[in-house]
Amino acid sequence: MTLTQWLPLAVVCSLGAVSPGPSLAMVLRHTLKGGASRGMMAAVSHALGVGAYALLTVAGIGWLFEQWPMLYQGVSLLGACYLAWVGVQALSAARQPSATDATAVPATVDPSPWKDGICIALANPKLIVFFLALLSQFVDPTSTTSDRATIVLTALIIDGLWYVMVALVLSRPRPLGWLRQRESMIERLTGWVLLALAAGVFLDTFMMVGPL
Q: From CA 29, how far away is CA 120, in angstroms rounded?
């Protein structure tokens, strides 16, 4: 893959990475709970999930979804269920004492950032659409193994770098202090955003299936 061919790919992957959504909320939440190290773990794990979707794209998963639309619908519904579950967890955490309260009772430990990062990536229907609609344009029958590896690594590295940078910036004392003062509000906002996204996926999927 030449530089001229790679640059549009890098731009597309960059736009996909910086697009706000459940992935940003997840990295923000883990950074808020555990600082830079926890946020970066979630960021790296999320990048691995993105890399997995990129690998499936270059391997031809789009053809499978075209042949078996119910497979795509099933993946979307499973993703929506996970987004809804994380949303409920965030709303539950919002009712717990704030970490900035010296008298607070220690809350239940959040799910591992490694698990949360990769699951949010794999469960995000936006990523499925992104890879099928945009990234697949860079793959054709003449693409070499090197070209396909470049596509996967570009998507993985750009996503990882972006969210690691987000975690590092948000974990600095001033922004982290500001965020922790509004921890309950952020948890509630995260929860409702994730539930709204899950509801939208459920609605879109059932409209795709049609009336029974």
A: 12
